[in-house]
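Our consortium's second objective concerns turning raw sequence data into structural hypotheses that experimental partners can test. To show how far this objective has progressed, the report includes one record in full. It was chosen at random from the queue rather than selected for favorable results. The single chain below, 126 residues long, was entered without modification.
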Amino acid sequence: MGVWALFLGFAVVNGLFRETVLEPHLGPDTAHFLATTTLAGFVFFSTLLFVGLRSETPTQTELVGVGILWAALTALLELGLGLLRGVAAADLFRDYDVSRGRLFGLVILAELLSPPIAGWLRRLGR
């Protein structure tokens, strides 16, 4: 949970940076692309550190569970916050529409797959 909280903190700072710095200079689409790929990369590399610095390598089953937990928490948080703000469900899912250049699903995918990939890479390095 601590690592996911780190993702959440980074996501908030990343979003503020996107809105205040990137969007005014690059436009909303480019800013969204850069911020989303930055967040997904942060998730992946943080997960590599998290798994790599542990004294024991978690099992692949544990790491799959962690990935599912992280992805579910993020999806529920996004949905919950959106609904609290009065955003229609259809509008919330628009951020996952790759055909419209929306890439937030990449962050969810990074959260889901990074733990088992990091475990696999750690086992390869032995």
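The partners drew two points from this record. The two ends are 27 Å apart (CA to CA). The chain has one domain: 2-124. Both points have been shared with the crystallography group to help prioritize constructs.
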